[in-house]
Amino acid sequence: MSFAEASRFWLKLGFISFGGPAGQIAIMHRELVERRGWIDERRFLHALNYCMLLPGPEAQQLAIYIGWLFHGLPGGLVAGAFFVIPSIFVLLVLSYVYAAFGSLPLVLALFDGIKPVVVAIVVEAVFRIGRRALARASHVAIAALAFVAIYLLHVPFPWIVLGAGLAGWAGMRYRADLFGGPSHDKEIQALDRAAPARPSRLATLRTLAAGLALWAFPLAILTFARGWQSLHAREYRFFTQAALVTFGGAYSVLAYVLQAAVESHGWITHAQALDGLALAETTPGPLIMVLQFVGFMASWNHPEGMARAAGAVLGALITTWATFLPAFVFIFLGAPWIESLRGNRSLAGALSGVTAAVVGVILNLALVLGAAVIWPRGLSDGPEWLALAITLAAFVALYRFKTGIPWVVLGGALAGLARARVFP
């Protein structure tokens, strides 16, 4: 295909990529492998397996990788950029409407119906990811320990990731039968031989230097204009750190953001984080775009001398840049060396440990959000029965009937409007 033809596809994908990472990967597989035949099944799955090893949005990283395969560096840049640009502008508009008019009765009613749906979405993610990740008793133990660490002991999420990765690495290195390893080694070796030539170390260093420069330049401008301890500079550093530890996708990073941005920094509230996830679920693009909403609301809540709207837009844009820049760097650095990474059994063991821990972290997120929505006044006062009913109905629709997330969210919004009309 030509570069222009591929670019048109990536732009289209940016507008239709609903359904979270699983739905987005399914769309790419249907369009690129089955319908257009631009890439074969083995190469697609090989690229996907590599992207699953990385922190960050795996669906966007898969788009960057395939774009790079098609047309090199320009192809990867266009694929990754078009994957998120539509959602950046859509979510900016929705964030402003939420911040400026969120106290209106109509908007409140909508979110009262959507919030229980978000709880159901997170609970369904626990089941879905757990089915794949908890294949062995050791995985269940790591998930349980991760849950205890973050829910009861309030251990920071990066330390949980590090500990789980080391446990998985050690299990693979010293007792391979405990954690399992990559299967179909002969197929992996065949793919290794068919892969593109590896780049020189100099080219790798140039890519790394370019990535570091693109990260450092905005931070230098923010520090000069606003100060090192300004909210915008702290947001930039915080969301860079979040981007480097987001194994497990948006649900796990939201647990980390809730722990830090809500409880430690006090930038936003639990309710605002929940509303942001609801907005991100209903817009195209990676679900991790919820972080743009968090950056927007943090700056809206704490303008620090700037006009609220201007400061909030700046906070949203720097959050988006810090979140997605590492995804490009990881692909351009690692894709040419993918074969050596895919053959590493110790790395596969570390990933299995991290993936198991993510299940425990997402379970913590489900409990925190569920308590805020279903028991807003505490367990002693009883649940909000309508919120509980919407949550259960949404979970059944998602888990049992595989209903698309946008339809379930729409149903929750209609239920919220109906409740407000009946009980004003």
Looking at this protein, list some descriptive labels.
424 residues; mainly alpha; 19 helices; 0% strand
Commentary on this structure:
This protein has one domain (87-424). The chain is built from 19 helices and no strands. It has helices at 3-16, 20-35, 41-52, 58-101, 105-133, 137-151, 157-174, 176-179, 185-194, 201-226, 231-244, 250-264, 270-281, 290-301, 308-334, 338-342, 345-374, 385-399, 405-422. Helix 5 (105-133) packs antiparallel against helix 19 (405-422) and helix 7 packs antiparallel against helix 17 (345-374). The longest helix has 44 residues, at 58-101.
Short description:
The chain has 424 residues and is mostly helical. Helices cover 79% and strands 0% of the residues.
Walk me through the topology:
Layout: H1 3-16, H2 20-35, H3 41-52, H4 58-101, H5 105-133, H6 137-151, H7 157-174, H8 176-179, H9 185-194, H10 201-226, H11 231-244, H12 250-264, H13 270-281, H14 290-301, H15 308-334, H16 338-342, H17 345-374, H18 385-399, H19 405-422
